[in-house]
What does this fold into?
Amino acid sequence: MKFQPDQLKGNRITAIAVCTVALLCLVVLAREFLSMRKAEPIYPGPGVTRTAMLSDYFEGIKGTAGDTEIYILEGKKPGASILVLGGTHANEPSGLLSAVLLIENAVVEEGTLYVIPHTNNSGFTCTDPQEAAPMRFTIDTPTGPRTFRYGSRSTNPVHQWPDPELYLHVSSGQSLSGAETRNINRTYPGRPNGNFTEKVSYAVTTLIRQEGIDVTIDLHEAAPEYPTINALVAHENAMPLASMAMFNLAMEGMEISLEPSPQNLHGLTHRELGDHTNTWATLMETANPAQGRLRGKTDERLVVTGQDKFYQMAAKYGNLYVPFDERGHPISGRVSRHVTGIMQLAQAYNDLDLGKRIVITNVPTYEEMNQDIGRYLATPH
Amino acid sequence: MMMYIYLGILLLILVFVIRYLFTENKLLSQIDAALVLIPMLLRLFLIK
Amino acid sequence: MQIELIVLLVMIGSFLIANMLLKLPVSLSMMLGAVLGTLVGGEGIPLRHLFEGAFVYLDTMMIIATAMIFMNVIEKSGTIEALGAAIVRRFYKVPAVMLILLMLIIMFPGMITGSSTAAVLSAGAIVAPILMLMGIPASKTGAMLAIGAILGMAAPPVNIPAMLITGGVDMPYIGFALPLLALTLPCAVFTALLLGLPYCKNLDYEKVKTGLNLEVGSRHGFKLYLPIVTLFLLMILTRAFAAYIPNLGMPLIFLISSVVGFFTGEKLDVVKTVETSISTSVPVLAKLVGVGMFIQIMTLTGARGFIVINCLGLGIVMLWIFSITILPAFGAVSSFGGASVLGVPFMLSMLSGNHTITAAALAFLACMGDLMPPTALAGNYAAKIVEQRYAKVLPRCLIPLAFCLLLGLLFLIFSKNLGFLVL
It folds into this structure.
């Protein structure tokens, strides 16, 4: 007799059986999805003088998944202030790791460094559907492995749902596709009475205003096929600073392009923080093949090594905006670009001789980090 | 506010999907319903 | 052979075997293809990846379910029948205009929900008997339904493939209304006239009249159209005054309009109406869950990247050819999947033209995928309504389909010259 699954009869008993299997799946899935709400430990180094919460600057996010730690590194001498935003997009892991590396190593002699490792904290609690990204990745340190979450580009929909069909960026009147309403780098300067993500960006804007942050550096990654990559993007006010930093970076052997913040693309840090606060707003991009559409097998290895055979092919076809060979773009290299960029922006600020300075020390060099960032992450305990 | 309205709509749909699961007399249709249930329940319980 | 190609072949092969030989529903066939893909790819059975993929469609699933409720309400309360009757009565002397209006009715639910299935199952089911009454053969009626539904899916304001493509390249879904209308309306007119006009030139109104329900319209008057008015009003108001009115979203708008419909026409059993609607929706919703699984596993194993990189290695002329062949053919799996998996990289390779026109054309071509067997969302439902096998309906779709593909291709090639359509 021919097997005909479509003729199989169902009844109350099969219904109960099917429900039971579904419930079992649900339990397994719930455990796995909920595991992402546990944050990775960060071990403040000798330079951290105190921590604060983002909700200290805007009560409206207190007790929500949007609230997050700010690590503050104060020098003995007062001076200029820099804010580093890591984890704006939780699927761009070099932003988080660069922030962690600064928190665990840097010492500030003069001025103040503010570091937020999980700027969109909610984004770290989920992964993007159909992107098949790993939930975590591991960096080996000499004293044991450290695990970090690889999250979503956007706020977790369980914290902000549903998306509108179109997202209206109120202060500019610009419309974007609905899902962008959960992309924190489209919601600046934010609104105190806006949606969840707008409230978080409002808190960041308020922090910058209240603390009189001089320079803001937002850390990102992009797919190798995107035009803005290995780049430093700067608001027009920050151009003198950024161009000096770019010159210094080139001297150090790190190729980076300088791009002006587009006037008509709203909601992004480098546009809105520059327009709405006195900070010099900048943003840096490195190449993360785990985000791209051309990538092969998507796993932890891809995130960490940044090596991918399809991207090598794409580079030969001329479809990419960064060189791509068998060495790929390992995360150590990406983090070293970000951290070196931050150091050079600080140096450029001092070189501009504006009457106040920020001096950051105890940060490894570009070459040192490029080899292995694991050596500069704290011992897991 | 809107989130709770949408959770309500989701619950409404879910109730009828479960009803469908228990009234369908084809096993494959019941499995179809279960497939739909899982993501909807994960959102209803604010897990995913 | 590369492992990604092996995974891809296993996934597609097992899907086809499950669907065509074992007669499993598309949803379960997709799931089976995905599971075998993970096994061959050395990933075990990653439950998390399988179900995570479905979340891309969660909002779409809610739109389909609530749209189905709305369509059932206006169908059972007599609104659609009255509308069809009114159109035939007013326009039977000008059959060309009448056919085009009926085509627009078929398209309407697709336009607002972005789902060809919603269009076929609701308006399509009402218009089909009118078309057949006028003497159009069942297979051609089925073809009109299928093509109309797909054009509705592609027409503005909601074109989900276009949203998927624009979302993938960081581009706002703005300015698509005219380009999408310019693509869909000529095709709708062409299809309606090609398939319908030869049978409607000498229409015997007295004969047709017997099949029309003129009574329901006169019994309830304008009140009957209130659900549709509410739907349009809410859609327009929430968009026009987005800064002041909270965004209600399509599911809520459909439900509010459905509630209105419970009081404006023939009496309805609320529970039964919702029950029927959800019963019709479940297979479609499950299909989306299956598609979500399939795509996530393609991404996980690198099969997605394999397709993309092999398409990108082509010159622009080959890309155009692939846009009118492989892109719609991907609809055999899913037209949404086609837009997301192929549409986005194609878009990135065609950035030299007008971006909005290119994205609109690619989205339009991806929509054609809903005709592709075995999934053929629009096609299979259309065939079911006219009680034909899809194999009989599909040949009737070929000339209109060729017209659509040609128009889409012209938009791709001349996207720069068509920039004036983007407002």
Remarks:
- Residues 24 and 30 of chain B are 6 Å apart (CA to CA).
